[in-house]
Specification:
Shape: globular
Number of strands: 7
Strand content: 15-25%
Structural class: alpha+beta
Radius of gyration: 18 Å
Distance between the termini: 5 Å
Order of helices and strands: EHEHHHEEHHEEHHE
Number of helices: 8
Helix content: 25-40%
Length: about 210
């Protein structure tokens, strides 16, 4: 049996997503209102606490599965589990070359669930996502230079360390999705699949 790697379609990415990331917030938000449309939006990535929406209008088991009419956040029994599974997405300004699948182009990129992006060791990923959102929202036309910058931002998020012009902080390349996927491959197989999906790639078996 052979494994075939191919690009996710835009429909597959959006079907798995709970919301679009549009705002390049560079720090943790102070409130659920400030988090709207960012990498930390609980409407997209799930509530912080069990049995509570973000604004706490609905608290307790009797409100299970309720989606708050104020903050838009679902009341759930296991917030931690949701925050491991709920993807977001970024609608790209223009179709770009897929950095891992030659000949394929991307118009939307998955955003890793929030629990995979928390903690000092993965803070690099949030910086790379913010860079992509900033690049993506900066353009108003389809000039060649602008598309090239978008492609670079996508490639940096996916495989930054392998780029000739890697994004760096204090002289070191920011760790990319690919590096975290490879680190997880042996010890946490489920994590490898999550990171693979976040890179816009799917695996199918061929006999």
């Amino acid at each position: 049996m052979n494994l075939r790697f191919s690009a996710l379609t835009a429909a597959e990415v959006r079907a798995a997503s709970f919301g679009a990331v549009k705002v390049p917030l560079t720090r943790s938000p102070n409130s659920w209102k400030e988090a709207e449309g960012t990498l930390f939006d609980p409407r997209t990535f799930g509530p912080e606490r069990d049995w509570e929406c973000a604004c706490r209008k609905y608290v307790g088991e009797k409100h299970r599965h309720m989606i708050c009419d104020v903050c838009g956040v679902k009341v759930a029994a296991d917030a931690a589990e949701l925050r491991l599974r709920r993807f977001g997405h970024i609608n790209l300004f223009s179709a770009v070359e897929h950095p891992l699948v030659p000949g394929e182009r991307m118009v939307v990129l998955p955003v890793l669930p929030i629990s995979w992006r928390l903690g000092a060791h993965v803070e690099d990923l949030n910086r790379l996502y913010v860079n992509l959102v900033q690049t993506n929202t900066a353009f108003a036309s389809h000039a060649h230079e602008e598309v090239s910058r978008s492609e670079h931002a996508v490639a940096a998020l996916v495989m930054n360390e392998r780029l000739s012009e890697a994004l760096t902080e204090r002289g070191r390349p920011l760790s990319s999705l690919l590096s975290f996927a490879l680190d997880a491959q042996g010890s946490r197989p489920e994590a490898f699949g999550v990171f693979l999906f976040a890179m816009g790639v799917k695996v199918t078996a061929e006999s």
